[in-house]
């Protein structure tokens, strides 16, 4: 894993996305589902930040907020350019947002549904190039297909003529077409066979090194995060509960939820390690528990955990490890 330069490219500050809950014919708002709640994290140029957690923890919603596919309830996402100027990408004008979309792209989870089955690969890849008025679009497409190890002669085929792995490579090519700086990878290998997963992950690493890309890698698979990421942010019930370097993930995690996720990984490196079985279900994000949201499922829960919500704070002696837990002193 390459060493980070610690040059900030994105600064997510207190981002919230609350979905209203309606009731009755008049659709009166009776509450809110707090899918993402007060999330703050810095993302460095050239790194891969893994975001992990159980289904429904808010990791995909956070990605969509950064992409502006959702309008955030509150908070800011700052992009830092080469001159150290911070641009709040959530408050740009319509034209500014269109131009900025070239800098942040996405690879979706399902290669079967993320491509339009009724149009050729040529049209799929050329459309964003035309919108942004990129010169020599066919030459660009040809080069990108070669970069993702696909034959450029496939350009006139339809999505159903490709395997799942090939379709995901087309999705990667589409993300690369505008030469982005940041790519949000939303579970990009979870729908693929294990052998194909390895090929796609190797491709992503190769492209990152060649093009100096920054990845936000959203997944529930700890083993994939350990292989690909420089740092890991663990989400639970819409909030980040721990941030740490990947090298410390297996033996250095401090939050009980992270420990449970790691213990569930069926790999030989964890042989002899106690397997932690989380009891109960993830609480309702529209009615979270008082105090620490994780305390109903935590075997270490204390009285204070049921009353006072812990803050995300740095561990003593570390400027890269943050944890939200009353068990850990700052």
- Elements, N to C (H/E): EEEHEEHEHHHEHEHEEHHEE
Please mark out the parts with pLDDT under 50 across 5 or more consecutive residues, or reply none: none
CATH class, named Alpha Beta
Shape: globular
The CATH topology annotation reads as: Rossmann fold
Q: Alpha-carbon distance between the termini?
A: 28 Å
Structural class: alpha/beta
What count of structural domains?
A: 1
Main beta sheet strand tally, sense and closure = 8 strands, mixed
- Total helices: the number is 9
Strand order of the largest sheet: 6-7-8-3-9-10-12-11
**Chain-averaged pLDDT:** 90
How big is the Rg? Answer: 21 Å
The percentage of residues in β strands lies in 15-25%
Explain what you see.
The chain has 330 residues and is α/β, with parallel strands linked by helices. Helix content is 26%, strand content 24%. It contains 9 helices and 12 strands. It has helices at residues 59-66, 94-100, 121-131, 137-147, 164-176, 194-211, 222-228, 249-252, 256-263; strands spanning 8-23, 28-44, 48-52, 74-80, 86-88, 104-107, 182-186, 214-219, 231-236, 239-245, 313-314, 322-323. Helix 6 (194-211) links the parallel strand 7 and strand 8.
